[in-house]
Amino acid sequence: METIAYGDFAKLDIRVGKITEVKRHENADKLYIVQIDVGERSLQTVTSLVPYYTEEELMNKQVVVLCNLAKAKMRGETSECMLLCAETDDESESVLLTPERMMSTGVKIV
Question: Tens digit of pLDDT for each residue in 2-32?
Fold first, then answer.
């Protein structure tokens, strides 16, 4: 495994977020379009969590979010952050990372 310097890790803006809106992507079977409150702003992500979570399970869930990921287009929708998950190599399971207990939205992960 390659190692990185702390300075590289420090460039990552990882925060506690709260999912405020979830909808299925109209043109992709496995994608949700998700709005996430990360404190001072709301970010949108396109995520392949359909096989693992229902819309109801995701709504209002506290999550761990990489906020300073470069924007990308996924099936025509802008994705500007990433929900962090633990996922098995065969992709049979994917579990969202969440704070151990409730934390304020926008708190930085260090």
Answer: 999 999 999 999 999 999 999 999 888 899 9
Residues whose CB falls within 8 Å of the CB of residue 29, separated by 6 or more in sequence, listed in order: 50
| pTM (global) more than 0.70 | yes
Backbone angles phi, psi at 96, to 5 degrees: -65, 140
* CA angle in degrees (0–180, nearest 5) for 18-19-20: 110
Alpha-carbon span 108 to 64, nearest angstrom:
9
Look at the domain 6-96 and name its fold. OB fold (Dihydrolipoamide Acetyltransferase, E2P) (2.40.50)
Domain range list for the chain? 6-96
